[in-house]
Write a structure and sequence with these properties.
Layout lengths: L5 H14 L5 E10 L11 E2 L1 E14 L5 E5 L7 E2 L23 H12 L7 E7 L9 H16 L6 H14 L7 H8 L4 E6 L4 E6 L4 E7 L10 H16 L9 H7 L5 H26 L2 H19 L4 H16 L8 E2 L7 E7 H19 L5 E4 L6 E4 L1
Parallel strand pairs: 4-6
Antiparallel strand pairs: 1-3, 1-13, 2-7, 3-6, 4-5, 7-8, 9-11, 9-12, 10-11
Helix pairs in contact: 2-3, 2-4, 3-4, 3-5, 4-5, 6-8, 8-9, 10-11
This protein binds alpha-D-galactopyranose (GLA).
Length: about 400
Amino acid sequence: MSRPPTLLAEARADFEARFGRAPAVVVQAPGRVNLLGEHTDYEGGLVLPVAVGRATLVLAAPSPTPGVRMASAACDDGAHALTDAEGAPFPWEPDDGSGLPRWTIRPRALLSVLREVGLALPACDVLLHGDLPLGAGLSSSAALGVGLCRAAEALHGRDLSPLERSRLVQRAEHAAGTPCGLMDPLVVSVAREGHALLIDCARESFWHVPLPRGVCVLVADSGARHDLSDGHYARLRAECARASAFLGVRSLSEVTMEALAAGMARLDDVHLRRVRHVVSENARVRVAARALADGDFAALDGLLRAGHVSLRDDVQCSVDAVERLREVHDALADANKRSLTGARLTGGGFGGSLVALVRRTRAEALLDALREKAREALGAEVDAFVTDAMGGVELLDG
Ligand code: GLA
């Protein structure tokens, strides 16, 4: 249920094979799922994410050669110089003429932000490794950003606060073309073992909420890949911003149920759906935080299912592959009501993973059953795993 111990050894061996020496800094940054509170962080809403047992590892060692060289084990296309000899990152606009692969866009944007705040990476070699799948809705981009930022801090002998770090990572994401909220880098930075993180995004305050005893998290990948910079996410944000301008509020989280009812007739269908989602999702998160504290499994089941319906119908960010897998999952949950909740799409959507809660004593059996049912119904192998709620980013060496 926790991280395979061999992963770190493999990553170190890979670093030595590529760069001919041991890493001086090793950082482990987990991925996350969001239990509830989706597409609300950029509207000042409440969110309830959990760090999972799959992680990105960032390994680095100072180098006598000027500039920053970086390799990605997942992309396996060699080490690339991402900066000039003075450490200034090469530009990262699409078609920037740099000839650098797409996966280097985010690191280049982050290196640039780090440089602006006095955390420029010194001449060094960096390897990105780990078992967190890319584009599966588990926030591989925030794990990469937070991991790289924590490595830069270590190389400078600094330790930023989780909020400072998260804001830098968010700034880099925006610079690289994804106008995301603060949820992902914050939970990757500050998650606590055994707990979900309740964040009030308007106030940027957070609380650790324990998961009920004996309950863990099931994650199932729909296999449909998404990229937050593909325009869907930015469109949703713009629709929310238009709706709040129309209703005269700073963010949709200020809209009450009563105001929503009153404003209904004046909003067109698309904007009405977006507002209804934020208002109802904030209410669901409030109830879910209480249900977690009370260990109310049945209430959590209802909330996760309702959260999914709202994402599908009001945010309109589900896709066929997600719906097919969810039907298989929910049929299994219906037959095991006391042990498995219904599933909900997690993360930005348009593909990615489903999340559910499961009783630990039945977790492995239900995971096997889900794989088998998915094989029968969809003719596909599903990448699914069970995880405890994990802690946030960790400096392992350096
Ligand atoms: C992505 C973004 C987050 C959040 C979610 C949707 O994961 O990075 O900021 O908006 O989508 O809840």
